Protein backbone atom coordinates (compact mmCIF):
# COMPACT_ATOMS: atom_id res chain seq x y z
CA UNK A 1 0.00 0.00 0.00
CA UNK A 2 1.19 3.48 -0.61
CA UNK A 3 0.71 6.63 1.38
CA UNK A 4 -0.39 9.91 -0.09
CA UNK A 5 2.34 12.42 -0.74
CA UNK A 6 2.19 15.96 0.56
CA UNK A 7 1.43 17.26 -2.93
CA UNK A 8 -1.44 14.92 -3.87
CA UNK A 9 -5.14 15.74 -3.90
CA UNK A 10 -6.93 15.66 -0.58
CA UNK A 11 -9.31 12.84 0.24
CA UNK A 12 -12.88 13.78 1.14
CA UNK A 13 -13.58 14.57 4.80
CA UNK A 14 -16.23 11.84 4.93
CA UNK A 15 -14.76 8.55 3.67
CA UNK A 16 -17.09 6.71 1.31
CA UNK A 17 -16.84 3.42 -0.50
CA UNK A 18 -15.81 3.77 -4.14
CA UNK A 19 -18.67 3.36 -6.59
CA UNK A 20 -18.36 1.89 -10.03
CA UNK A 21 -17.87 -1.32 -11.96
CA UNK A 22 -15.70 -4.15 -10.66
CA UNK A 23 -12.85 -4.68 -13.09
CA UNK A 24 -11.64 -7.80 -11.32
CA UNK A 25 -11.40 -9.66 -8.00
CA UNK A 26 -8.00 -10.88 -6.77
CA UNK A 27 -6.83 -13.01 -3.86
CA UNK A 28 -3.91 -10.80 -2.86
CA UNK A 29 -3.31 -7.07 -2.69
CA UNK A 30 -0.18 -7.52 -4.79
CA UNK A 31 -2.22 -8.99 -7.68
CA UNK A 32 -4.64 -6.03 -7.59
CA UNK A 33 -1.72 -3.63 -7.40
CA UNK A 34 -0.13 -5.23 -10.49
CA UNK A 35 -3.35 -4.69 -12.45
CA UNK A 36 -3.41 -1.00 -11.51
CA UNK A 37 0.28 -0.75 -12.43
CA UNK A 38 -0.38 -2.30 -15.87
CA UNK A 39 -3.20 0.17 -16.48
CA UNK A 40 -0.99 3.04 -15.35
CA UNK A 41 1.74 2.00 -17.80
CA UNK A 42 -0.94 1.87 -20.54
CA UNK A 43 -1.75 5.55 -19.77
CA UNK A 44 -5.21 4.97 -18.34
CA UNK A 45 -6.29 7.64 -15.85
CA UNK A 46 -5.63 5.61 -12.69
CA UNK A 47 -7.26 8.28 -10.52
CA UNK A 48 -10.54 6.62 -11.56
CA UNK A 49 -9.48 3.31 -9.97
CA UNK A 50 -9.71 2.04 -6.41
CA UNK A 51 -8.57 -1.16 -4.72
CA UNK A 52 -11.18 -2.35 -2.22
CA UNK A 53 -10.37 -5.01 0.38
CA UNK A 54 -13.37 -7.17 1.33
CA UNK A 55 -14.11 -9.23 4.45
CA UNK A 56 -11.45 -7.66 6.64
CA UNK A 57 -10.00 -9.72 9.46
CA UNK A 58 -7.59 -8.83 12.24
CA UNK A 59 -4.79 -11.35 12.66
CA UNK A 60 -2.48 -11.30 15.67
CA UNK A 61 0.63 -13.40 15.08
CA UNK A 62 2.44 -14.45 18.23
CA UNK A 63 6.18 -13.86 17.84
CA UNK A 64 7.47 -15.22 21.14
CA UNK A 65 7.34 -15.41 24.90
CA UNK A 66 8.01 -12.24 26.83
CA UNK A 67 10.53 -12.42 29.68
CA UNK A 68 12.34 -9.98 31.95
CA UNK A 69 15.45 -10.23 29.76
CA UNK A 70 13.50 -9.54 26.57
CA UNK A 71 11.65 -6.60 28.18
CA UNK A 72 14.94 -5.20 29.46
CA UNK A 73 16.62 -5.59 26.06
CA UNK A 74 13.76 -3.96 24.17
CA UNK A 75 13.58 -1.11 26.67
CA UNK A 76 17.34 -0.59 26.52
CA UNK A 77 17.32 -0.49 22.72
CA UNK A 78 14.49 2.04 22.48
CA UNK A 79 15.97 4.11 25.30
CA UNK A 80 19.38 4.12 23.61
CA UNK A 81 17.84 5.42 20.37
CA UNK A 82 16.06 8.18 22.26
CA UNK A 83 19.23 9.07 24.16
CA UNK A 84 21.21 9.08 20.93
CA UNK A 85 18.68 11.45 19.39
CA UNK A 86 18.87 13.82 22.35
CA UNK A 87 22.68 13.65 22.33
CA UNK A 88 22.83 14.58 18.64
CA UNK A 89 20.38 17.45 19.17
CA UNK A 90 22.50 18.71 22.05
CA UNK A 91 25.63 18.39 19.90
CA UNK A 92 24.00 20.45 17.13
CA UNK A 93 22.95 23.29 19.43
CA UNK A 94 26.06 23.28 21.61
CA UNK A 95 28.92 22.92 19.12
CA UNK A 96 31.55 23.24 21.86
CA UNK A 97 30.52 19.81 23.23
CA UNK A 98 32.16 16.58 22.07
CA UNK A 99 30.96 13.20 20.84
CA UNK A 100 31.32 11.83 24.36
CA UNK A 101 28.11 13.73 25.21
CA UNK A 102 26.29 11.74 22.51
CA UNK A 103 27.64 8.42 23.86
CA UNK A 104 26.73 9.38 27.43
CA UNK A 105 23.21 10.36 26.40
CA UNK A 106 22.78 7.02 24.60
CA UNK A 107 23.98 5.08 27.66
CA UNK A 108 21.77 7.04 30.05
CA UNK A 109 18.82 6.56 27.68
CA UNK A 110 19.52 2.81 27.52
CA UNK A 111 19.60 2.62 31.32
CA UNK A 112 16.30 4.45 31.75
CA UNK A 113 14.74 2.49 28.90
CA UNK A 114 15.82 -0.80 30.47
CA UNK A 115 14.40 0.24 33.83
CA UNK A 116 11.12 1.35 32.24
CA UNK A 117 10.90 -1.90 30.22
CA UNK A 118 11.38 -4.06 33.32
CA UNK A 119 8.86 -2.09 35.41
CA UNK A 120 6.32 -2.09 32.59
CA UNK A 121 6.69 -5.87 32.13
CA UNK A 122 6.40 -6.49 35.87
CA UNK A 123 3.14 -4.53 36.04
CA UNK A 124 1.58 -6.24 32.98
CA UNK A 125 3.08 -9.71 33.34
CA UNK A 126 -0.04 -11.63 34.30
CA UNK A 127 -2.17 -10.01 31.58
CA UNK A 128 0.14 -10.34 28.57
CA UNK A 129 3.15 -12.65 28.67
CA UNK A 130 3.94 -12.78 24.93
CA UNK A 131 4.95 -10.55 22.03
CA UNK A 132 2.92 -10.28 18.85
CA UNK A 133 2.35 -8.42 15.60
CA UNK A 134 -1.11 -7.25 14.47
CA UNK A 135 -2.22 -7.28 10.84
CA UNK A 136 -5.41 -6.42 9.00
CA UNK A 137 -6.02 -8.77 6.08
CA UNK A 138 -8.76 -8.97 3.46
CA UNK A 139 -10.23 -12.15 1.98
CA UNK A 140 -10.09 -10.63 -1.51
CA UNK A 141 -9.39 -7.37 -3.28
CA UNK A 142 -11.49 -5.78 -6.02
CA UNK A 143 -10.29 -3.22 -8.51
CA UNK A 144 -13.17 -0.76 -9.00
CA UNK A 145 -13.35 1.63 -11.96
CA UNK A 146 -15.79 4.20 -13.31
CA UNK A 147 -18.31 2.36 -15.53
CA UNK A 148 -17.56 4.42 -18.66
CA UNK A 149 -13.89 3.33 -18.55
CA UNK A 150 -14.57 -0.37 -17.91
CA UNK A 151 -14.43 -1.48 -21.57
CA UNK A 152 -11.22 0.49 -22.20
CA UNK A 153 -9.54 -1.03 -19.15
CA UNK A 154 -10.61 -4.55 -20.15
CA UNK A 155 -9.14 -4.03 -23.64
CA UNK A 156 -5.86 -2.78 -22.17
CA UNK A 157 -5.66 -5.79 -19.86
CA UNK A 158 -6.50 -8.22 -22.70
CA UNK A 159 -3.51 -6.97 -24.69
CA UNK A 160 -0.20 -8.71 -23.92
CA UNK A 161 1.75 -7.00 -21.13
CA UNK A 162 4.67 -4.93 -22.42
CA UNK A 163 7.27 -5.11 -19.64
Walk me through the structure.
Helix 2 packs antiparallel against helix 3. By secondary structure, the protein is α+β, with helices and mostly antiparallel strands. The protein is elongated and about 65 Å long. The longest helix has 26 residues, at 68-93. A 3-stranded antiparallel sheet has the order 1-5-2, covered by helices on one side. The mean pLDDT is 87. The protein has 4 helices and 5 strands. Helix content is 45%, strand content 21%.
How would you describe this structure in keywords?
163 residues; alpha+beta; 3-stranded antiparallel sheet; two-stranded antiparallel sheet; 4 helices
- What distance separates the N and C termini? 22 Å
In the sheet with the most strands, the strands line up as 1-5-2
Tally of helical segments: 4
Alpha-carbon Rg, integer: 25 Å
Low-confidence stretches: none
According to DSSP, the number of beta strands is 5
Q: Mean pLDDT, rounded to whole units?
A: 87
Question: How large a portion of the residues is in β-strands, by DSSP E?
Answer: 15-25%
Helix content: 40-55%
Instruction: Specify the biggest β-sheet.
Output: 3 strands, antiparallel
Query: What series of H and E elements makes up the topology?
Result: EHEEHHEEH
Shape: elongated
Structural class: alpha+beta
Give the structure's gist in a few sentences:
This protein is of the alpha+beta class. 45% of the residues lie in helices and 21% in strands.
How are the elements arranged and paired?
Layout: E1 21-26, H1 29-41, E2 49-54, E3 57-65, H2 68-93, H3 99-124, E4 130-137, E5 140-145, H4 150-158
Antiparallel strand pairs: 1-5, 2-5, 3-4
Helix pairs in contact: 2-3
Amino acid sequence: MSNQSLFSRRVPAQPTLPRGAVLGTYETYLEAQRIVDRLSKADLDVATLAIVGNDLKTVERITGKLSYARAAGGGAASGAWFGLFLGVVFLLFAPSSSLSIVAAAALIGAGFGMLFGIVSYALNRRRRDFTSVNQVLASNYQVVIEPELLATAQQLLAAPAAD
